[in-house]
Specification:
The chain has 253 residues and is of the alpha+beta class. The protein is built from 10 helices and 11 strands. The chain has 2 domains: 137 residues, Jelly Rolls; 104 residues, Arc Repressor Mutant, subunit A (Orthogonal Bundle). Strands 1, 2, 3, 6, 8, 9 and 10 form a 7-stranded antiparallel sheet that branches. Strand 4 and strand 5 form a beta hairpin.
Length: 253
């Protein structure tokens, strides 16, 4: 894309600018690919493949035609981008995380401040080139909670997500699904790419993250999600996401 003149790429991306105290959308799909991003706040995106929880240094890429549901956890400044077909030719074919560098964040912020007429100028084309060049796609399993397709596993996972403080041992999970322990382990890994225990730990952390974004204290979020103490929650948070809850949310107000 960077080989083209700025005027040629102007119009390759189209912004969505919304500020909400809170929102929860319905399942929908688009005729264009979408980069779902918020410059402030925490957003989660759910598809039939899984759920992604993204802070302001990450975004989620949703390819054209993929049904998804988007919601915020607390106040959010939403700055999503629709991507034209010619620009997304080399983009991934499945949803994934987009790393948002400081440069990309400021480029998106500046682009979304342009008026409709300004988006057809050479300056807009230069911003578009920069945004497309800065996009970095990654699997980042730390920000994705895979969703199984087997109805038995879906029901089991939904029960856990509704009450993440509970413990569902492997033997109990297998019995609820009507299979042997070994059969459950094979089935769950085949459907999600991970183990039941690891999936539960990840779901518990996701639940804590969203509670923090919604304004709960570290103590309340930790206890609600089954951690023995705030320090245990903070340790799991840092091990998975690279910083403690106070470092993360303190840095973002």
């Amino acid at each position: 894309m960077s080989r083209h003149e700025p005027a040629a790429v102007a119009g390759a991306i189209h912004p969505i600018v919304e500020d909400w105290p809170r929102f929860r959308g319905v399942a929908h799909r688009h005729g264009l690919g979408e980069i779902i991003y918020a410059i402030e706040g925490v957003v989660s995106v759910a598809t039939d493949e899984g759920t992604w929880v993204v802070p302001p240094d990450r975004a989620v890429w949703i390819p054209v035609g993929v049904e998804h549901t988007t919601r915020s956890h607390g106040p959010v400044r939403f700055r999503a981008l629709f991507v034209s077909p010619q620009a997304e030719e080399s983009f991934p074919l499945r949803p994934c995380v987009v790393e948002v560098s400081a440069l990309l964040r400021e480029a998106i912020r500046r682009f979304t401040e342009l008026s409709e007429g300004e988006r057809e100028t050479d300056f807009a084309g230069c911003l578009t080139q920069l945004i497309l060049a800065e996009l970095r796609f990654t699997a980042l399993p730390s920000l994705e909670l895979p969703r199984p397709r087997d109805p038995r596993l879906i029901a089991l996972c939904d029960v856990f997500v509704e009450a993440p403080a509970q413990e569902i041992p492997l033997e109990v999970a297998a019995a609820r699904c009507g299979v042997s322990r070994a059969g459950f382990m094979r089935l769950f890994r085949a459907e999600t790419g991970t183990s039941w225990g690891r999936w539960c730990r990840h779901a518990r952390l996701f639940a804590g993250l969203t509670r923090l974004a919604e304004g709960q204290s570290v103590l309340a979020a930790a206890l609600d999600c089954g951690y023995q103490s705030p320090s245990a929650f903070a340790s799991a948070f840092r091990a998975t996401l690279g910083r403690t809850p106070r470092e993360w949310f303190g840095a973002r107000g």
